[in-house]
């Protein structure tokens, strides 16, 4: 997308009805132009070469997992912003997490009825954000910290992320040792995706990764992912810190909110904590990270070049919440350095 030109979109879906629905929904936005539709990867491949679209919308659940296979090939051979359309089901969650890991910009829920105005407005916002995003090459996973890493007894890590965060967190946690400081993460995603995401992180990381639950003690070697839905995730406690899920209104436009986690960390962990804010749209986490810094914590912001969307880290940096800004590839080592005994 250049200047005031509309975002040029290619719609790929094996269902003619869904192609028509997506095209109609997006074409209602004057800043978006549908340049073509394709019923599968073979047609889409040729249309990408001929039309050079800015953004691709891709059905995640085409027969034989072709959506994921095609995404994998796109991100390896011709990286471009891709918005996946999926369902909020167990099967859909597994495929969606894999799509985000492969480099999809984001996943969006398919409409549940023929005329769904909210679907079109939300998808249009996402497509326009995708057009402005940075498409990162596949990351080479960092080597985990060596076994001689010894964290301070009171150290902990808090991380917030959103769009682009699935891929970023997989890369970041791959650099954590099995005995990492207790780490709590808020990643903006549908509640139904969180168990699948936590299980995926657990398989790919040396520490144990699980969904946070009320009363869970923060232990070394454990990473806790906020479940979301109707609850925020906080920490509480002095001598023994624990996770706490709180049913409350959205904060900074989100539930779970990165701000809500960071504010609790500032209160209960102070200078013994280290915080990081990663890629994502909006400003959630900026005020909370500033509170952590004001209470003595070392704070890290992901730099613009390594972000898919330089929104949340930019907002935090603008208000003086970031102690140091780093590329994603260096953040794990810096977080651990801030927690050494």
From TrEMBL:
Domain of life the protein comes from: Bacteria
Reactions mediated catalytically: [protein]-L-glutamate 5-O-methyl ester + H2O = L-glutamyl-[protein] + methanol + H(+); L-glutaminyl-[protein] + H2O = L-glutamyl-[protein] + NH4(+)
EC number(s) stated in the UniProt entry for this protein: 3.1.1.61, 3.5.1.44
Entry comment on modification after translation: Phosphorylated by CheA. Phosphorylation of the N-terminal regulatory domain activates the methylesterase activity.
Modified residues (4-aspartylphosphate): 59
Pfam families in UniProt: CheB_methylest, Response_reg
Major place of residence: cytoplasm
Enzyme class: hydrolase
List of catalytic residues: 162, 188, 284
Keywords for the protein's UniProt record, in alphabetical order: Chemotaxis, Cytoplasm, Hydrolase, Phosphoprotein
Positions of the CheB-type methylesterase domain: 144-341
UniProt-listed InterPro entries: CheB-like, CheB_C, CheY-like_superfamily, Sig_transdc_resp-reg_Me-estase, Sig_transdc_resp-reg_receiver
Record-annotated Response regulatory domain positions: 8-125
Location within or outside the cell: Cytoplasm
PANTHER family: PROTEIN-GLUTAMATE METHYLESTERASE/PROTEIN-GLUTAMINE GLUTAMINASE, PROTEIN-GLUTAMATE METHYLESTERASE_PROTEIN-GLUTAMINE GLUTAMINASE
Record-stated family: Belongs to the CheB family.
NCBIfam families: PRK00742.1 (NF001965)
Recorded domain comment: Contains a C-terminal catalytic domain, and an N-terminal region which modulates catalytic activity.
Function in brief: Involved in chemotaxis. Part of a chemotaxis signal transduction system that modulates chemotaxis in response to various stimuli. Catalyzes the demethylation of specific methylglutamate residues introduced into the chemoreceptors (methyl-accepting chemotaxis proteins or MCP) by CheR. Also mediates the irreversible deamidation of specific glutamine residues to glutamic acid.
Protein name per the record: Protein-glutamate methylesterase/protein-glutamine glutaminase
Organism this protein belongs to: Sphingomonas insulae
Gene name as annotated: cheB
